[in-house]
Write a structure and sequence with these properties.
- Chain A: This is ABC transporter ATP-binding protein.
- The complex is a heterodimer.
- Chain A contains nine helices and ten strands.
- Chain A is of the alpha/beta class.
- Chain A has helices at 6-9, 57-64, 87-97, 113-124, 130-140, 155-168, 185-202, 213-216, 239-255, and strands at 13-24, 31-42, 46-50, 72-77, 80-81, 98-101, 173-177, 206-209, 221-226, 229-235.
- A six-stranded mixed β-sheet of chain A has the order 6-7-8-3-9-10, sandwiched between helices. A four-stranded antiparallel β-sheet of chain A has the order 2-1-4-5, with helices on one face.
- Chain A has a single domain, classed as P-loop containing nucleotide triphosphate hydrolases (Rossmann fold), CATH 3.40.50.
- The longest helix of chain A has 18 residues, at 185-202.
- By secondary structure, chain B is of the alpha+beta class.
- In chain B, strand 22 (620-625) and strand 23 (630-639) form a beta hairpin.
- The longest helix of chain B is centred in the middle third of the chain and has 53 residues, at 431-483.
- The model of chain B is unreliable at 395-400 (pLDDT under 50).
- Classes of the chains: A alpha/beta, B alpha+beta.
- The interface between A and B is medium-sized, with 31 and 25 residues.
């Protein structure tokens, strides 16, 4: 964890994609999922990626997070260029530098909440920083439920475990794929609140894909994708302003 | 509904693969056994028919050749009278007995118990219809013999060569006059046959001028039955005549019976293999049903009845069974063919004949395959029917409900307790009754343990968890937890292995224990350095005893010679021995009286016999010898019962004069300087380098008595291998299912940084844990059973003490671990290759 003042950090880039393209198939059946996308994710910023189905928002996240390969361009996480990495190195990178929050929680049913939270450190064979883990657990409000297994927790609680898991290893960047997609609005608001707090108070960098304008309103910045390209960007969004933009794209989509 | 079943089968081809394989192997085992037995029995029947083809009537004498007051067989006069009967074309008198042929190195050709000698009985045309000469001609002089083609080939003998042949007497050298082929059963089974001139054979095996058997050939057009009628009045009382047809049938029936036993044993093992397969099939269908919950609920929602759902699952099972049976049957036929050529390769000659495919194996294959599969799918089918229609509406991936295991566990505990009680009761009762209790108890205990295994899985696997986490870290921890995630499935998988290992361990414990007891018995009781006996287990000639007594460096020699005398009109089991020497070669533990009294013409009696008959040292016993002469013997000593000593010992000088031919089973020899190859050679040379006589040192003796057990164990291991292979398929199946069901999880683990190597390791360790768990349960139960059965035979084997074969048990556990690693190869690779993005994407 860097100790640089917050003002400085906001100008540092946690992850960067340059001229990133992802093309499926060849010739007639060729589908361009990402078309020379260039984007930076600054440290201590919460970015939401939005766009209609098939716009490439998930693909962009998967490529930047080292989950998927890309056709051309470059992706950097911190100082590491992903394009040249083999599976083994990518795995290590994900393990050490990236945190994930999935829509379907994706907890291991055989492990307790606490074990799930410390799983990435277990995999890395590192001893968790107990103080840090405790403060993360405190923050997401799971102190009383650490011994429970996922099946004994509600959806919101499960996703809070997932958030804690992502935060616990202090990754350089956290990626969330529709983190509130499976939650009711109250639980969703809670989870988004934790993510925003982690950015504001802990200086964490978070990128999330969502289609919910309310969720996007928690972000510092919203990036809009359509047909594999970045079409717009919005700073300090509100649910209404996001909805407005979306309506505009929709109208454009229909007329074009 | 049938169309749905058909579609389902095709949709889940890969997941049904292991099920098909398991059923297929079981069916192949069954049909292979049946086809093999059919083919063999057909071939034997043909051969019997062929070997009696020319025989119209065969006469066999049952006279006692040792009784000097009776005619020992059929005389030449009887033969002459038979040949005068109307319709008789030829009459061939035969005698037979043991004859061992030495190869140029002096070793016996063929296995001891099927080395036969007989006479060449030429008819008027100078030919013997039973033998076809491929080279040279039949022996007609005293020093000539003929050999069967196979044995001549093994000894590399050609016509004109000198060949050493041993019958019960000393070795003699003969000139090979001819080489022949024959339909004789012993030769076909890999034995050897030596033909002597008739007079030589009669002198050797019976008495000059007499035959044991007469075969009669008929003139063309003559009726066998009529000849039989005409021959019967010409025979002495002690002979019986039968038509060739009747003999052929009788022989075929005997062979059939022997094959029937073999068939039953093989089918028994096939049954075990199929039983093990049931667990695998049941697991597969349980999973398929769980995965299809939504689909099934939908069908229920649109109006399918419960019965239709069950039927659809069963139809699917039947289809799978049908396909597996068809392939299994084809494989079984191949197995039968392979088994036959395999036996030929191991020198077990089988008569040639076409492959016989009757209806029974076909019907059996399909019935077994389809019924087993449907039976195993029955429970999952019923469970499928219980899925409520509303499940179709649930968006959440239906998790298999883990119903309470309380009822199951209570039943399991009760059945196990019942079984264990039966086994313990059987062990304390002993004898045949005890073994029956144990058999029943074992059945219940096995069923009970199978029912209980899901319950056992949690604590047992929890015990080993630290072993997993220590060296293997997070992969080991996850593997340990995954292994107990679905106790029913883990239980069923482990059960399959446990059954096989129960049997393997039970047999091993029993075999090793009995082997050790026998070993101890031989070491405790045999003081001699060598034991001399006939290769065919027959009687040694007296000349062998004389030769050994005279041999250089021999310090003590005593035979174990059957002594025939009657007490109160009843034969007692007695041995004639050499007093003074017997105590040096065998342990004679005298409890009362004086061992030295044997030399003074007294008899020694074993404790139990003495007790039963009320004999004490000093008592007199009136006896009648075999030649009806009477005498009074005095009891001189009483000794402890021993496996190697008859209940009564007597100086052989006392009985020798009363018996025409002494029956010497073994001669024990002690030499100065103990066992050494030089000493052994002295003995072999003293015996005239006789190929028919074996000289065994102590190790050989131990092997002789205990060796059979090891061979038997190895055969059992081989036969149980099929059940173990199916159990391995079960492990593969379970893992493949688990990996498939946990795709999302594995994808997440990969995403958050678990590398491929450790994903593989996680799956592999889960397999090892399940396999070893099954093995441990099986080994535990098997040891218990081995102990119990051992208790029932303990009385019959002096010096019996339970021996746990730790080395073997260790090997079994290690093998089970390896089985796990092997079984995990494919599923682990699949897990590691899993497409991460697909896996973590929500539907």
């Amino acid at each position: 964890m860097t100790t640089a003042p917050i003002a400085d950090r906001s100008t540092l880039v946690a992850a960067r994609a340059t001229e990133l393209s992802k093309i499926y198939g060849q010739g007639e059946t060729q589908v361009v999922a990402l078309d020379r996308v260039s984007i930076e994710f600054r440290q201590a910023e919460l970015t939401a990626i939005m766009g209609p189905s098939g716009s490439g928002k998930s693909t962009l996240m998967h490529c930047v997070a080292g989950l998927d390969t890309f056709s051309s361009g470059s992706v950097r996480i911190g100082e590491t260029e992903l394009g040249s990495l083999k599976d083994k190195q990518l795995t290590k990178l994900r393990r050490d530098k990236i945190g994930f929050i999935f829509q379907a929680f994706n907890l291991l049913p055989t492990l307790t909440a606490l074990e799930n939270i410390t799983l990435p450190m277990d995999i890395a064979g590192r001893k968790p920083d107990k103080q840090w883990v405790d403060s993360v657990i405190q923050m997401v409000g799971l102190s009383g439920r650490l011994g429970h297994r996922p099946a004994q927790l509600s959806g919101g609680q499960q996703q809070r475990v997932a958030v804690a898991r992502a935060l616990a290893s202090r990754p350089e960047i956290i990626f969330g794929d529709e983190p509130t997609g499976n939650l009711d609005s109250r639980s969703g608001a809670e989870v988004l609140g934790f993510l925003r707090n982690s950015v504001r108070e802990l200086g964490q960098t978070v990128v999330m894909v969502t289609h919910d304008p309310v969720a996007a309103a928690y972000a510092d910045r919203v990036v809009f994708l359509a047909d594999g390209r970045i079409v717009d960007e919005l700073y300090g969004p509100t649910a209404d302003s996001v909805l407005d933009r979306m309506k505009r794209f929709d109208a454009k989509g229909r007329t074009s | 509904m049938f169309r749905t079943a058909l579609r389902n089968v095709f949709a889940h081809k890969a997941r049904l693969l292991m099920t098909v394989l398991a059923v297929m192997l079981g069916v192949a085992f069954v049909s292979g056994t049946l086809v093999f037995a059919d083919t063999l029995s057909h071939a034997f029947r043909n051969q019997s028919a062929k070997s009696y083809d020319d025989v119209a009537v065969a006469v066999t004498s049952y006279a006692d050749p040792d009784n000097p007051k009776e005619e020992p067989g059929l005389s030449g006069e009887v033969l002459d009278r038979i040949s005068a009967v109307d319709g008789v074309a030829g009459v061939y008198g035969r005698v037979e007995g043991f004859a061992g042929v030495a190869d140029p190195d002096g070793k016996l050709i063929g296995v001891g118990w099927s080395n036969k000698g007989s006479n060449f009985a030429p008819g008027k045309d100078g030919k013997d219809t039973a033998y076809t000469f491929t080279d040279g001609s039949g022996p007609v002089k005293d020093d000539q013999i003929a050999l069967d083609e196979e044995s001549a080939g093994k000894g590399e003998y050609e016509v004109g060569d000198r060949v050493r042949v041993a019958t019960n007497g000393p070795v003699k050298e003969y000139t090979l006059s001819g080489v022949f082929t024959t339909e004789d059963g012993a030769v076909n089974a890999g034995g050897s046959l030596v033909l002597f001139d008739t007079a030589v054979a009669q002198k050797q095996y019976l008495r000059p001028g007499y035959f044991e058997e007469v075969t009669v050939t008929a003139a063309p057009g003559a009726d066998d039955a009529r000849i039989l009628k005409a021959v019967e009045p010409l025979l002495p009382d002690s002979a019986e005549a039968r038509t060739g047809q009747a003999l052929a049938d009788e022989q075929a029936d005997q062979i059939e019976q022997g094959l029937g036993n073999l068939k039953q044993v093989l089918l028994g093992f096939a049954g075990i293999a199929l039983f093990v397969g049931i667990f695998l099939i049941s697991n597969t269908f349980t999973m398929l049903v769980a995965q299809r919950t939504k689909e099934i609920a939908l069908m229920r929602a649109v109006g399918a009845s419960r019965r239709q759902i069950t039927r659809s699952v069963l139809a699917e099972a039947a289809l799978v069974g049908l396909v597996a049976s068809a392939v299994g049957f084809a494989l079984g036929v191949g197995l039968a063919v392979g088994l036959r050529s395999g036996m030929a390769a191991f020198d077990m000659k089988m008569p040639a004949g076409p492959l016989v495919l009757s209806a029974t194996p076909v019907v059996a294959a399909f019935a077994v395959g389809v019924l087993i599969t449907v039976f195993a799918a029955w429970l999952p089918g019923r469970r499928a029917a219980k899925i409520p229609p509303v499940a179709a509406m649930n968006s959440v991936h239906a998790v298999a409900t883990t119903k309470s295991l309380v009822v199951r566990n209570s039943i399991g505990a009760a059945v196990t307790a019942l079984g264990a009680a039966g086994i313990v009761a059987g062990a304390s009762a002993g004898g045949d009754d005890g073994r029956m209790y144990i058999g029943g108890g074992a059945f219940f205990a096995l069923i009970g343990v199978i029912v209980l295994i899901p319950l056992l899985s949690r604590p047992v696997i929890a015990l080993v968890r630290p072993l997993l986490v220590g060296p293997f870290g997070v992969a080991g921890k996850l593997a340990g937890q995954n292994a107990v995630r679905n106790p029913r499935r883990t239980g069923a998988t482990a059960s399959a292995l446990a059954i096989g290992l129960t049997l393997v361990t039970g047999l091993s414990v029993l075999g090793v224990t009995v082997g050790a007891a026998i070993d101890k018995m031989t070491t405790d009781n045999i003081r001699a350095d060598y034991m001399v006996s006939m290769a065919n287990g027959g009687d040694l000639d007296r000349s062998a005893l004389t030769a050994l007594e005279k041999a250089d460096g021999v310090s003590a020699v005593s035979p174990q010679q059957d002594a025939y005398f009657r007490v109160d009109g009843e034969y007692v089991s007695a041995s004639a021995v050499t007093p003074g020497d017997i105590e040096k070669v065998l342990t004679v533990d005298v409890v009362s009286g004086d061992a030295g009294s044997l030399a003074r013409g007294r008899i020694a009696v074993a404790e139990k016999t003495a007790e039963n008959r009320g004999w004490k040292p000093g008592d007199t016993v009136p006896v009648t010898f075999d030649d009806d002469e009477k005498a009074t013997l005095t009891v001189g000593a009483v000794y402890k019962d021993s496996e190697f000593l008859s209940p009564v010992l007597v100086d052989r000088k006392i009985v020798d004069g009363h018996e025409a031919q002494p029956s010497i089973r073994q001669i024990f020899v002690k030499v100065d300087g103990g066992q050494s190859s030089a000493n052994e050679k002295v003995l072999v040379d003293a015996l005239g380098d006789n190929p028919a006589i074996t000289v065994m040192d102590r190790q050989d003796i131990r092997d002789e008595f205990g060796g059979a057990i090891n061979t038997l164990l190895n055969v059992m291991y081989g036969l149980l291998a099929m059940a173990l292979i199916i159990a391995v398929l079960g492990v593969v199946n379970t893992l493949a299912m688990s990996v498939f069901e946990r795709q999302q999880e594995i994808g997440m683990l990969r995403a958050i940084g678990l590398d491929r190597r450790r994903v593989k390791r996680m799956v592999r360790l889960e397999a090892v844990v399940i396999s070893v768990f099954g093995a441990v349960v099986g080994i535990g139960l098997g040891t218990f059973l081995g102990w119990a059965i051992g208790e029932t035979v303990a009385e019959e084997i002096p010096g019996y003490a339970l021996v746990l074969p730790w080395d073997r048990i260790g090997i079994f556990v290690v093998l089970a671990g390896l089985v796990g690693v092997l079984a995990a190869l494919w599923p682990a690779r699949n897990a590691a290759r899993l497409n991460m993005l697909n896996a973590i994407k929500t539907e």
